[in-house]
Amino acid sequence: MAASAHKLIPADPEKVMVIRHVTSEVVTMSTPFLRFGRIKIGGRGTLVRLATGSVAVFSPVALTETAKKETDALGEVKYLVASDQEHHIFLESWHKAYPTAKILAPETLPSYRDKQNYFKLPQANYILFPDKGPAPSITPEFDAEFDVEYVPVHPNKELIVNHRPSKTLIQADLLFNLPAREQFSKTDVSPTTGILTRIFNALQNTRGSAVWQKRFLWYGASSSDRPRFNESMRKIAGWDFERIVPCHGDVVESGGKGIFEKVMEWHLKAKDAKKST
């Protein structure tokens, strides 16, 4: 892990990680996380056990002793997924524990890690999603259970998946559901205090009309190629899911499809979507 990452994460994640079996197939690992070392947005990794017994790990968090025991009890780790180019800081420890696992990531991740002086992961382990061109097929067992949409228009290069058997949408920075209550629940720190945190909580939530999150996505995250972004949001909206597991903020346990449609309303109704080449 790069030295700069240490100020973003808890000193002893074992003490503050919340591990929860959301379903028999889906396990979340929620921890405190400070954006820019100050804003309390929380972090979350997600484990999914496939029907074959293989395990996919999305946005890996610290591999504590308890986290490893929970993971090993679930099955054999075959996939490590950097759900965007920012959610990769613990890949080194997970790769060393599970050296044969495939690493799914945006094509920008290897060079991005090199620039930040992270451990160089073996090129042979990567399955990279290109900014242009068709998305790669993963494996028959993975493709049988997951819908996948890569959204390179988003500044963080989002890799969105839907686990069809559990109807669970898993994503990193596409949609926030702040405050990060669960992620700070084992600490003595409130997820709603501090001026910067309060501002971010007000902007990045799903309450009411979610107008500020809509504005952030419309005028910020999608601005480089909004038609292509709109097309991706329409594709995701066509999936069958009820739950949303975000990396930042609380899990949307039910009604997730409606929440997604509300937050992405402007993109779903936009008239300028076009087929990307």
Automatic annotation (TrEMBL):
This is Metallo-beta-lactamase domain-containing protein. InterPro entries: DUF4336, RibonucZ/Hydroxyglut_hydro. PANTHER family: METALLO-BETA-LACTAMASE DOMAIN-CONTAINING PROTEIN, YALI0C07656P. Pfam families: DUF4336.
